[in-house]
Each structure stands twice: as C-alpha cells, then as structure tokens.
Amino acid sequence: xxxxxxxxxxxxxxxxxxxxxxxxxxxxxxxxxxxxxxxxxxxxxxxxxxxxxxxxxxxxxxxxxxxxxxxxxxxxxxxxxxxxxxxxxxxxxxxxxxxxxxxxxxxxxxxxxxxxxxxxxxxxxxxxxxxxxxxxxxxxxxxxxxxxxxxxxxxxxxxxxxxxxxxxxxxxxxxxxxxxxxxxxxxxxxxxxxxxxxxxxxxxxxxxxxxxxxxxxxxxxxxxxxxxxxxxxxxxxxxxxxxxxxxxxxxxxxxxxxxxxxxxxxxxxxxxxxxxxxxxxxxxxxxxxxxxxxxxxxxxxxxxxxxxxxxxxxxxxxxxxxxxxxxxxxxxxxxxxxxxxxxxxxxxxxxxxxxxxxxxxxxxxxxxxxxxxxxxxxxxxxxxxxxxxxxxxxxxxxxxxxxxxxxxxxxxxxxxxxxxxxxxxxxxxxxxxxxxxxxxxxxxxxxxxxxxxxxxxxxxxxxxxxxxxxxxxxxxxxxxxxxxxxxxxxxxxxxxxxxxxxxxxxxxxxxxxxxxxxxxxxxxxxxxxxxxxxxxxxxxxxxxxxxxxxxxxxxxxxxxxxxxxxxxxxxxxxxxxxxxxxxxxxxxxxxxxxxxxxxxxxxxxxxxxxxxxxxxxxxxxxxxxxxxxxxxxxxxxxxxxxxxxxxxxxxxxxxxxxxxxxxxxxxxxxxxxxxxxxxxxxxxxxxxxxxxxxxxxxxxxxxxxxxxxxxxxxxxxxxxxxxxxxxxxxxxxxxxxxxxxxxxxxxxxxxxxxxxxxxxxxxxxxxxxxxxxxxxxxxxxxxxxxxxxxxxxxxxxxxxxxxxxxxxxxxxxxxxxxxxxxxxxxxxxxxxxxxxxxxxxxxxxxxxxxxxxxxxxx
Length: 858
Prior knowledge:
Radius of gyration: 44 Å
Shape: extended
C-alpha cells in the first residue's frame, strides 16, 4: 500500500564509510540479500568512481563535530515493481540532487513477520556543491576559500539546513511518486501533509468517512529501535523503547482497521459476515428505542457538532463527565464544583457556536443520509453475498455475547469449592441492586461515610460519659479539653452526614431518567447479577452431582473459621478507615457477613447436637492446627520485633558504638564507598587477633626443649601485630579521608533512605502477623469452647444428680414429699433434659447449687 514516509538525517564524521558500506551492501554487509539496486554519482574526480573511497575521505577530512553526509530514507509505494521503483528514485535524485552534489543510493526490499513488503531507499549525499574546480579528494572536504576557491574545499550549501528545504523535499517526493504511480495505472497516492491537515481538508469537503479514517495516531518509530530488535532481539530493548514499540504496533493496528473500514464504507471491498453484522448493530444502536428505525436526532446532532469542532466537543464532554463523576464522590469539594461549572460552560459554548453555523444543517443531513445508505448497503450485502437473515443473525450474535460473558464468569468460579459458591449465591440473592448501584457511583464512599458516622457517634457517647465524670472531679483545663474534643467530633459528624446527603442527592437527581448515570449503572448491576447467579446455580448443580457432600463436621468448622476471619477483617477496616482507604472492602465484607451470620450460628448449633465422642478427634485436630498457627504467629512477631528494634537503633545511633565521630550509618556508607575495604580490614584484624591468642596459648604450653618452635611462634605473633597495625593505619586513613565529605553525606542519606524503607516494611509485616495472630487466637478460642462444652455439661450433670440425692435425703419422715421439694425436682429434670438436647450453649452454663438450711437452691 502506498504510504508516505520521508526521514531526513545527518551523519556525523566517522560514520560515513561504514554507513555507505551498509546501504550499498559492501565489505562486511555483502551477505545481506535485500539489495535491489544501488548507484553512486557525481564522483567522477575519484578513480573508478569508488563511492566508499569518497565517504572514507569525508570521515578523514571533514572537521570534527561536522556533518560528513546527509541522508534521506524514502518509503517506495509497494504497488511499484522493482524496475518502476528504480525509475522513481533516479527521477527524484535527478530532480533534487542533479549534477551538483555527490551521492550514493540503494534500494532495499525487506519483509516483516506478517510477510508485508517494505520497499525503501537510502539516499546519501554530500552538502558540498560541485563547482567545476578540479581538486584532490582530500582537499574537497577542506574549508572553502571564498577569495581563492581553488585553494580551499568545495563550499557547503547551507540551504540543506533550512526547514523550507526539507518541506520542499517532502512535497517533491509526493509529486514525483504520485506521477510514477499514475503513469503505471495505480489508483493509490501518497500525501506529505500531516494527518491533522488531511483530516481538516476532508471535513471541509464533507468527506466525513475519510476524516474519521485520518483521526488516528501517526505510525512512526525510530529506525534505531527497529535495527536493535533486528540485531539483538526485542528483549534487548529498554523499558522506554518497548513502550515505543507497543505504541508503534498499536498505531499500525488502528491505521489498518480504519483504512479497511473506509474501504468497506466506500464499497471497495466486501466485508466478512461478522463485519457486516457488527456494522449494522452499530447503526441500530444509534436508532431510537421505539422501533421506528429512525436515527436518534440528538445523537446525530452531537456527532455533527463534534465533526465541526474537529473533535473538541467530544473531548469537552469527556472532561465534563470525568469531573461530574468526581463530584458525586466529593460533593463538597470547592475546587471540583468550580471545575464542573467551567466544564459545563465549555460544552455549551462549543455546542452554541457550531449549531448556529451555516454548515450545521448540511452536515447533519449528510450524516443521516450516509448512515441510512450504509445500513441499506450492508443489509443487501448480507442477503446477496451471504444469503442470511439479519434478525436471526443479530439474535445469534447477542446469544454468543451472553455466552461469552457467562464463560468469563464461569472461569472466575470454576475452581471454587461448593461452600464458597453457596455463599456467593446467597449474597447475590440478598443483593439490593439499587443500593449496589449507588455504592458504585459513589466509589463506595456511601459505605465509608456511614461507618465513619457511626464510629464518630460511638466516640461521642464515650466522650459525653467522660465529660460527666470530669464535670464533678476534673479541672477547668480537663473540662475544656473534653469539650473541644466533643466539638471536633460534632463537626466531623455534621460534615460526614452533609457529604452523605449530597452524594445521595446527586445520584438520585436523575433517578427517573432512562439515560441517566443511575439508570445505566443499575442496569449493569442487574444484568451482571442475573448472569452471575445463572452461572453459579449451574456450577453448583454440576458439582453437587459430581462429588459427594463434604464431611458435615469439617464443613461446619470451615464456616466458623471463615466467619471469624471476616469479622476480624471487618473490624480492622472500620478501625483504620479514617482516610477512606477501605470503603470497597467494607462494603463487600458487610454483605458477606450478613450472609454468613446465619450459616455461622447454624454451624455452632449443629456441632452442639453431634455425639461428642465422634467429633472429639476432629475437634482435637483443628485445635492442634490452630495452636500451632498461634505459636508460629508469635514467633514471627518476636522476630520482627527484634528486627525493628535493631533497625531503629541503627537509624537513631542508639546503643551502638561509633568510631572517630562516625555514626553507624556513616560507617556503612564508608564501607560502600570503599567497596567493602573498610569491613574487610575489620574482619582481617579480628582474624589476626584470634590467631595471636591461639599462638600465645600454644607458646605458654611449650616446654623448655621447644626452643625452635617458641622462636617461630614469637616471630609469627610479631608479624601479625605488624599487620594489625598496618590495617589500623589504613582504617585511620579511610576515616580521615572521608570524614565530613559531601560524598559520604550523600551516600549516608541513600543508605538511610533504604533502611527507613526496610523499617516500614518490617512494621507492615509485623502488623500482618499481629492480625493473623488475633484471627487465629479467636478461632482457637471458639474451637476450645466447643470442646469444653461437653466437659462443662458433664460436670453440671454431676452437680444436679448430687443435688437430687440430697433432696431425696431430706424428705419428710412420713415418706411424703413437700411441695417445694417436688417443685425443685421438676426444675432439675427440665434442666437435665435441656442439657441433653444441647439447648444451653457452653457460654451460658452458670449453675450453682448452694445449701441453705435443710434445702438446696439452684
């Protein structure tokens, strides 16, 4: 496809010969097989017209930091054959270079990974103009002599530096290439203008489809990056270079898609069946919802204003919607209120400006005709080209999309256990769609504000109680301090309630509108809920048939553990949600806790009814597992406590000895600067000291007859002491050299920054383990409580039986029971029955038998 690309470069001294060899495929580049044609000219003053000799002389004789050559890289239209491409380049060179400047050019043909052809030309030329004076090659590149031209080099033409010259080269290449394309019967043309200029021209002519094709990013990338990929591969690129490649590939994709779209709209190519259906769907989405098949006039008007404003209208609407969305979340923010008014004003100004223009009605009518014509064209193509029913295909497409959505949801839940699927299904069944839509629109601030308000009110009650106590016994200062805190809390409550009211008001202002934000979000929530419930119900049915039910006891324990974890997380997020960091988490946890509370209580009740002897081994196993977790959590917390203490001491310099006025961090920085020499010296001294101690012990243990060994040891000790002194001197030199230096200060700051980050990470990790410990302790407490329930019940039964026996012993002498004794026995029987039925929980067993006189009271 014909595509304009002209890249203008300048080559520094030292690169000319090698670059010429590269483009001409000579010397080290002979093996490359992409050369189509090469030619050099205006070098008759060189023996054999040797191009490489000319460019080598340019490297050797041009002044430093000057240009040895200039180069044009030209994309040749792929429609042309090799012969036609050669003619095109020769024609362009003759037109722009002529007989005035030495040049070399080469035509290459390469193919990308998709097999697309890339026919292009490298044109190198010297800026030095030939003036007819016969010079030696070396003199040609010397500085020009205006008084005696024959004594100096050829003069450089400064026109090559001007922007006007570059623009002239671009236009000349467009004209020349298009002439050759036309002469060989090709319809394709190239255009040297920017995408924006070409789009504006299309809009002026009313060619809106063409204008939309040109509304895209330019396809451009540095040749160095492409060469780097070719030589060393994609992985050799830097992060910035990879981003450029991604941008380039994306721009290519957009261009290809838009050009294909334009060709389809113009009827130049027949679209695929899917493309036709997608296009008809797009046009139908622009129709009114009443089934009249009329295009939505409001939508067409917005499109018209956007075309006339060259895209500024849509941009302004997007900015306005962004600000409006922020305003829902932060309704009292003065800066956002101001931004919203300005954004709305800008939209209205653009709309008023262009709806009053002469072109407005003409463009509006043209758009309506274009879309109506396109819909007819595509519908006819479906019948004639593919012989299919449109309505059937649209329904089929809709079903395929729904199926795709369901597959996506299914992949999310496929590996979830049955119990988790049940929880989620219950959540969805209980879900209040309107409330959920409000939460989404407010970015879950409604949840956060509600919790904050409750928390503030709880704190206020505590302060009011404290105020009551202080009013009787406290000082004036204490009473004032409490009152200030109360005032501050009241202010927070007022502000929170005000924000809550404003957010709900801004959401409900378009409650009755079918095209408002609330209606749109509510529809999304309802559709998603419906699809998700269907997938989970099908999965549950499938999994329950495929696998046996879980062990009931294990399932009950999982419910209890999951509930305790959720409850702990919920309490943690409420406590730490001052900056509204956990609004979304609170909302999700709140919903899950609502669902799980019944499951949790039911699980406790079911465990209470089970035969204790059968469930005791399982309870024991869970208790052992969570006791191990608690112990492990405590060990981890202790480790982090030590690490945090050591790191804090290091950063503050506490409890650590320093040397020569250096802080611990400065000594670490010094060791970094000396590439480990400081610490190596210290380690070496310690090693030598230990060896000297060992030598002295050996020396003391030697007898009188070991004179030779004594001498050797004494000499060894002396030599080691000398080494220690040398190492101390070297250490002193290092300490003295860097003391108070800027270099040491910078390195110390760097070290401090790293250690401070590490300290924060340690503290964060410790907090995670502390949270885990709290959760595991709570679960362990529950498990222990379940196990102890039976033990407590047995003890209470023994006490009751003992009480019955005592009552029997104090019956009246005539063998008749008193009314009081009978009543007490009935009470005990009922209580025993309740124990057997598991009606009293282990937390509620608080029975006392006390002897008073001749009777027992329960």
